[in-house]
Amino acid sequence: MPESIRIQDLTSKRYKVLVGLGIIFIVLALIFWSLNFHSLSYYLAAVFGIGCFFGLSSSTFTTGNVISYDSYGVTLKLVGSKTFGFRFSELKDVTFTDKGLLIIIEGIDAVKLSRKRYQEESLINLYNLLKAKN
Fold first, then answer.
1. pTM of this structure
2. Which residue ranges does UniProt annotate as crossing the membrane (predicted)?
């Protein structure tokens, strides 16, 4: 059975809000700790900060095939393959054929994602994303 690929947008509002809150809570924890506030206050701030970052990674922690992208580039974490990333400016060509998706990147070997291994819908979504950003 073909595997699905989860595509994660790192420019989404949810991602930006959770990163911002996580940083604020961690900074507050450090400030409370350095000013010798009551220990519960900096423990709570630290827990909330860590919780924000955990909320970001929990959805993809157990997922094997995840592609994360922002406005500059893409990171591919695929099972059975080394995790790698590239900038959209390094992308030479993207081709969708009968066998699957072929991604040609400057300075890296061509990446082939087979239709036998991955769901066609996931490959089409990735193809459309790379074509739009290229």
1. 0.76
2. 15-35, 41-61
Judge whether 133 and 19 are in contact, CB under 8 Å. Answer: no
Question: With 0-12 CB in 10 A as exposed, 13-18 as middle and 19+ as buried, what is 113?
Answer: buried
Nearest 5°: the CA angle 29, 34, 39 is: 60
- What are the pLDDT digits (tens) for 51-72? 998 988 777 666 778 888 998 9
* Dist. CA 117–CA 113, nearest whole Å: 7
pLDDT tens per residue, range 73-100: 999 888 877 888 899 999 999 999 888 8
Q: 55-86 burial, b for 16+ CB within 10 Å, e for fewer? A: ebeeeeeeeebbbbbeeebbebbbeeeeeebb
